Amino acid sequence: MKLAVYECEEWQEEYLRERLQDHELVFVSDKISEDNVPADAEGLIVFIWSHVTPQILDKASRVRFVATMSTGFDHIDVDECKKRDIVVSSVPFYGENTVAEHTFALILTLSRNILPAVQRVRAGLFSPQGLRGWDLKGKTLGVIGSGSIGQHVIKMARGFEMPILAYDPYPKDGLDAELGFTYTNLDHLLAHSHIITLHCPYNEHTHHLLNDRNLAVIRRGAVIINTARGGLIDSAALLRALQDGRVSAAGLDVLEEEASIREEYQVLHPSFHATSDLHKLVLEHVLIHHPRVIVTPHNAFNSIEALERILDTTIENVHAFLRGQPINTVQ
């Protein structure tokens, strides 16, 4: 099978070459386009920045299979693929423990004042004065979303001897008894949790899941952690809650306008205003520099092992398709 592979780092290219030796592989470091897709490609392996459109499929009319090295697949015209009998596979799971570990990295960084402590020592002052932290033991953790990542967070929290509340619109029968937590509604979770961490998908129903209305009932001094999607939190509401002390601190790996912040010079481009919310962009710059907020650059998934799991699943998706038994399909 001839496979065109896009957006790979050098080590990923070597990894795939070694494990897909029976196939003809064409690697392109850039995202896919009509100019760089081989007309005789039978399969495409892409990442989220490569948009598989009808025009791409017209150019590569022999394509029978598309594998995306991601959980999301909205960059692929799945309906068009279905019309053309093209199988599309994704990577549904790869970073459950990885994201959960980053969640606790953010929690511990805040609870033990790690960032200001390191900055102080680097500045030449070796003193713990004013850096007193707080224990996780006995603090209630509120987990929003009890899917695979949320479950890993719950298991880790048990190791810290934390009571755990969870909210999920689709609670899983018996999971609470198995893992040792209590299902509750969202307002109760917010009102009774010392730390609140989000692990749910972003969609029209979860847009601004945390907002002015429900942050008004939050336990005063709570900490908010978000390693899921930026749009789950209303940035303006979070900033107001930080300013009046309802929220004592926040650890964020995602922001509503993170794509714009990643390339700030895009503000000068004429198309920027059509795709970005300048008001949110300014709010998030305020959050980034807030003394009680730490922000990491959507890095929770980014471990060697998680990235290898993405590649391993993609490789298995290719093999399963060729066996005539496709897996992890998205249609």
Give descriptors for this structure.
331 residues; alpha/beta; seven-stranded parallel β-sheet; 14 helices; 37% helix; 15% strand; elongated
Your description of this structure?
This protein is an alpha/beta fold. It folds into 2 domains: 2-94 and 305-322, Rossmann fold; 96-300, NAD(P)-binding Rossmann-like Domain (Rossmann fold, 3-Layer(aba) Sandwich), CATH 3.40.50.720. Helix content is 37%, strand content 15%. The chain has 14 helices and 12 strands. It has a 7-stranded parallel β-sheet with strand order 8-7-6-9-10-11-12, sandwiched between helices. The protein has a 5-stranded parallel β-sheet with strand order 2-1-3-4-5. Helix 2 (54-59) links the parallel strand 3 (43-46) and strand 4 (65-68). It is elongated and about 65 Å long. It starts with a strand and ends in a 9-residue tail after the last helix.
Helix content: 25-40%
CATH superfamily label of the largest domain: NAD(P)-binding Rossmann-like Domain
User: Strands across the major sheet, in which order?
Assistant: 8-7-6-9-10-11-12
Total individual domains? 2
| Global Rg | 22 Å
Largest sheet: number of strands, sense, barrel closure: 7 strands, parallel
Q: Give the helices and strands as they follow along the chain.
A: EHEEHEHEHHEHEHEHEHEHEHHHEH
- Unreliable stretches, pLDDT < 50, 5 or more residues? 260-273
Mean pLDDT: 92
